[in-house]
UniProtKB/TrEMBL annotation:
Protein name, UniProt field: Diaminopimelate decarboxylase
Orn/DAP/Arg decarboxylase 2 N-terminal domain ranges (all copies): 36-289
Subunit organization: Homodimer.
One of the GO BP terms on file: lysine biosynthetic process via diaminopimelate
NCBIfam families found in the cross-reference section: lysA (TIGR01048)
SUPFAM superfamilies: Alanine racemase C-terminal domain-like (SSF50621), PLP-binding barrel (SSF51419)
Any Pfam family hit: Orn_Arg_deC_N
Requisite cofactors: pyridoxal 5'-phosphate
Single annotated GO MF: pyridoxal phosphate binding
Cross-referenced InterPro entries: Ala_racemase/Decarboxylase_C (IPR009006), DAP_deCOOHase_LysA (IPR002986), De-COase2_C (IPR022643), De-COase2_CS (IPR022657), De-COase2_N (IPR022644), De-COase2_pyr-phos_BS (IPR022653), Orn/DAP/Arg_de-COase (IPR000183), PLP-binding_barrel (IPR029066)
């Protein structure tokens, strides 16, 4: 739950606002983002990684207001598309604090990034080296680039979000020599300024050993590059992927320990080889915005399937949170609009879409007097819920409200039926 959440008068409050008031004012489903929680996590990262760069991974959840928070808290931003870059530029975020990612950036996206003057572009393929070199030459720019290295680390997380083993689409492999070949090719192009190496091993990872192995391998590659080319690359970007707690008993890595551990490893490998210690960047997404988010739903039906379980249908579903359907994610859910002493009953919280896999919480206990009109709240939905939302079954995407100091304000307007019909001929 968000750092500022609590209970008043039986109802859940976030940022000092009663969820019943939020539902009355803004409707449901509703994404609620605790501004103080999110901004304090931005600051925690900046403190733990002081001397390093912290780039928020915008894919977790991006909108203009979040970009303003980043600007004020002194963080950088990672974008993975021209659209994400457009959000940042629309509110005047300093382009030099933006890194552009992606395994298949289009020529238009690369051109936009070059014209805007983004701080770094992370190269993901041989084709991209040639493509970016050509575009940079045409525009008379010399972008700072990093090479995304696949370090061969087996991250312990869901298959869809593990990204450092060889058999997946991202990066250039250390094991096969593709990373070393990419270094050669980039160094041969005067239009590209190779400043470092990048690695991202996956997401929702709790065991920090994988991050350390990846950091050691990247630092070792820096040493090899110095030996082979006589070039000292000044930067390492260690990616993001740190896990958060979704249900009771989940563990989450300590940021300070993680920061110290990574720094120590890189410092040791580089100093032992007589190299200066590179500037480090990390790219957390989920850990910054995840815990501060709560999704509010209204219960519509409570169906008891005799002898099995109770199905609680809410007014949203896999269109506002696809993570359970996609990754088998687990969530904590509570009755939010009141307190109840009724016996707990085994429930499955399901959406209103035309799929039996439209599940928000697979197994949970809710009070047996749960009834239509009750509000339930799902915790830790700040990351990868709104950003992965769809309009399946023509459901409008819910609004996002920021809460702080007892007040709420809309930061992303909820879609209307007009929005859904716009653009249709
Ligand atoms: N940097 C790069 C290059 C990434 O690809 C990602 C996430 C991050 C940083 C941030 O990772 P985080 O700290 O948020 O774990 N939709 C999935 C997660 C996909 C993550 C994709 N890349 C989910 O809902 O679990």
């Amino acid at each position: 739950w968000p750092r500022t959440s609590g209970r008043t008068d039986g109802a859940l409050t976030v940022g000092g606002v009663d969820v019943r008031d939020l539902a009355r004012e803004h409707g449901t489903p509703l994404y609620v983002l605790d501004e103080d929680d999110v901004r304090s996590r931005m600051r925690d990262y900046a403190t733990a990684f002081s001397g390093s760069e912290v780039h928020y991974a915008g894919k977790a959840f991006l909108c203009k207001e979040v970009v303003r928070w980043l600007a004020r808290e002194g963080l950088g931003l990672d974008v993975a598309s021209g659209g994400e870059l457009a959000v940042a530029l629309s509110v005047g975020f300093p382009p030099e604090r933006v890194t552009m990612h992606g395994n298949n950036k289009s020529a238009a996206e690369l051109t936009r990034a070059l014209e805007a003057g983004v701080g770094h572009i992370v190269i993901d393929s041989y084709e991209e080296i040639a493509r970016l070199g050509h575009l940079a030459g045409e525009l008379g720019k010399r972008p700072k680039v990093m090479i995304r290295v696949t370090t061969g680390v087996e991250a312990h997380t869901h298959e869809f979000i593990a990204t450092a083993h060889d058999d997946q689409k991202f990066g250039l492999s250390l094991n096969t020599g593709a990373a070393a070949e990419a270094v050669r090719r980039v160094l041969a192009l005067p239009q590209l300024d190779l400043v470092g190496l990048h690695s991202h091993i996956g997401s929702q990872i709790v065991d920090t050993a994988g991050f350390e192995v990846a950091a050691r391998r990247l630092a070792t590659l820096l040493v090899q590059i110095k030996d082979e080319h006589g070039v000292v690359l000044p930067e390492l970007d260690l990616g993001g992927g740190y896990g958060i707690a979704y249900v009771e008993g989940d563990e989450a890595p300590d940021i300070k320990e993680l920061a110290d551990g990574l720094r120590e490893i890189v410092t040791k490998v580089c100093s032992d080889a007589g190299l200066p210690v590179p500037r480090l960047t990390i790219e957390p997404g989920r850990t910054i915005v995840g815990p501060g988010g709560v999704t509010l739903y209204e219960v519509g039906t409570v169906k008891d399937v005799e002898g099995l379980r109770t199905y609680v249908s809410i007014d949203g579903g896999m269109s506002d949170n696809v993570r359970t359907a996609l990754y088998g994610a687990e969530y904590t859910v509570v009755l939010a609009s009141r307190e109840s002493d009724a016996e707990p009953m085994l429930c499955r919280v399901v959406g209103k879409h035309c799929e039996s896999g439209d599940i928000i919480v697979r197994d949970c206990y809710l009070p047996s007097d749960l009834a239509p009109g009750d509000l339930i709240a799902v915790a830790a939905t700040g990351a990868y819920c709104r950003s992965l939302a769809s309009n399946y079954n023509y459901l409008p995407k819910p609004a996002v409200v920021a809460v702080s100091g007892g007040a709420s304000r809309v930061i992303v307007r909820g879609e209307t039926e007009d929005d859904l019909l716009r653009g249709q001929l």
